[in-house]
Amino acid sequence: MREITIDAIKLHLIAMPLVEPLRTSFGVDDVRAIILVEMQSGDLIGWGECVVSEDPGYSYETIGTALHIMQDFLIPKIVGQKITSAVDLRRLMKGVRGHLMAKAAIEGAVWDVVAQANGKVLADLVWEQFPLDAPRKKEVLVGVSIGIQPSIDETLAIIEKRVNEGYRRVKLKIAPGWDLELTDAVRSAYPDILLMLDANSAYTLDDIDRLARLDKYNLLMLEQPLAHDDIYEHSKLQARLETPVCLDESIHSANDVRLALAVKACKIINLKPHRVGGMLEACAVHKVCYDEGVPLWIGGMLETGIGRAQNLAIASLPGVTLPCDLSATNRYYDPDLADPPFVLNANSTVTVPDSVGTGVTMQLERLEEAKARFTREFPGLV
Ligand code: OSB
Ligand code: MG
């Protein structure tokens, strides 16, 4: 691999309005605040995206903490350094504990620059990190995630629209009181659709009987029902449920996956590359699941095209066996920051870009608009 020098890093604060707000058990997202990382190496520019929110709802990291960690600790450690891969970068950032989403944003820009410097497609570079006996995929199976709606009828109307667009897997956000009746209605209307639920940590073990009543709906999985930082109690729940439990918030590393599998806390893993600190650790998580034959899929954090392209590179790995939260771009942002947008193919797939680097190009005039929007939408946030 060609060595690169990290000459400069710029952070851009932007705001992006979501086409469809996403209501979860921890809040509603309609305009996303995002930190973009612009990394310069010679005449190459690489982009990374930091997926934190303004508030510590999904993760303890926020726009404020990520800026602090990047500006005051990570960037000073890496500017001017020569590296060949994300492995070298990890060594440079080793003195900083936690703050995985801040690290992932920087790492994303490094992968982009390294791919370009070596004339490689990002997905190929990712595959080469832990070569396997199976090739990477050219297309990735995807599904759609539907937030908590004002009514069941409105939920059914959205599902109908999404099914007509071609999505063949539906994920519903749930919370106590927005669960059994909803699932019953959706299952009756769509007896055969791949259906799953995501609770975003809204339940406790006291709800075990209620959650067990979901077993009769033939769900693909129940995502993160219990505490965001728990693995042990999920093992108690999984022992009672037929429905496979999937962990999202609880997984921050390949070792978390090993632990979760050892205590049988789940049967499926949702891998969000940004949640585990970047694509390098994502490859390690993928390797554990691939070796153990554990079903795996790639989750989303409402990324723009920059983060989405990186998620798609991970999703192209052969061990990613279930539909991913990587819907078409126009479901999230219209227009996105980067072109071309990702589109849904007829078979509920998205095509993995096949050009050098991430396969998407930052549109600088849209970036400027998004920066001005941040100032308007989030005055006083930083
Ligand atoms: O729990 O998977 C989650 C978005 C933001 C924060 C957490 C989650 C999500 C999603 C996104 O569910 C789904 C999508 O990409 O459409
Ligand atoms: Mg989730």
> Separation of termini?
38 Å
Largest sheet: 7 strands, parallel
The total strand number stands at: 16
The shape, in one word, is: globular
Beta-strand proportion: 15-25%
- Helix content percent band: 25-40%
Q: Write down the secondary-structure element order.
A: EEEEHEHHHEEHEHEHEHEHEHEHEEEH
**Unreliable segments of 5+ consecutive residues:** none
Q: Measured on Cα atoms, how large is the radius of gyration?
A: 20 Å
What small ligands are held by the chains? 2-succinylbenzoate, magnesium ion
Helix and strand composition category: alpha/beta
Average pLDDT works out at 97
- Order the strands across the largest sheet as they lie in space: 7-8-9-10-11-12-13
Number of helices: 12
Account of the protein in words:
It is built from twelve helices and 16 strands. It is α/β, with parallel strands linked by helices. Helices cover 35% and strands 20% of the residues. The longest helix is centred in the N-terminal third of the chain and has 18 residues. The model has no long low-confidence stretch (mean pLDDT 97). Helix 1 packs across helix 3 and helix 4 packs across helix 11. The structure holds 2-succinylbenzoate (OSB) and magnesium ion (MG).
